[in-house]
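Homework help board

Subject: predicted structure for assignment chain

Our instructor gave us this sequence and asked us to write out the predicted structure in token form, then describe one feature. I got the tokens but I'm not sure how to describe them. Can anyone check?
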Amino acid sequence: MAEKAVAEKAAAEQMAADKKAAAEEVAAQKAAKKEAAAKAAAAAKAVAEQAGAQAAEEEAHADAVTQAATDTLASAVQQARLKLISREDLQRAIADARSAAVSADSISAAEALLSKLPAVVSFSQDWLVKSVAITRAEEIGGGSFGTVYKVRLGDELLAEKHFPVKTEAAEEREVLERRLRREFRALHHAQHRSLCTLHPSPN
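My token output:
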């Protein structure tokens, strides 16, 4: 009788231990699932934040490009109204503005000026003189775009500007030529006793 009671007690204890172990295993599985879900949610949040940051960066870059093109077009329009640039220069600015998604109103305002501009702006070659005929006197000033010297041509005092070309690359020379032409056009329209007047040829 005693042995039976002991056996029943042992069986009950074993059953209780098995139930406890099963409950602990279920709790562990739930905890593992919860932890996995939390990690997945954190990973998804990180991906979303990264995507959002990338989208914001791309939007900011696009806005910057658009703003730069808008400013460039506005400057071109201002120069076009003063006839300081050619039709080709303004067309280039309009094309850049279109590719940068500048507002249609700004582009339309620029296009309205195209017919009022010359296809190209040329200057008389009568200005050109041989350097051997010039006597350089002294340096007047200089900057990133060149150096200006006081020179003598016969009995006349003039200003001679030297433009540095550090390479024979066609692209750099083209950029320099465009800058030079813009400066010539600006001087042509400027009126001041301290500035020489430049006169473009009729053609």
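Reply (TA_rk): Your tokens look well-formed. For the description, you could write something like this. The chain has two domains: 1-120, 125-189. That's the kind of observation they're looking for.
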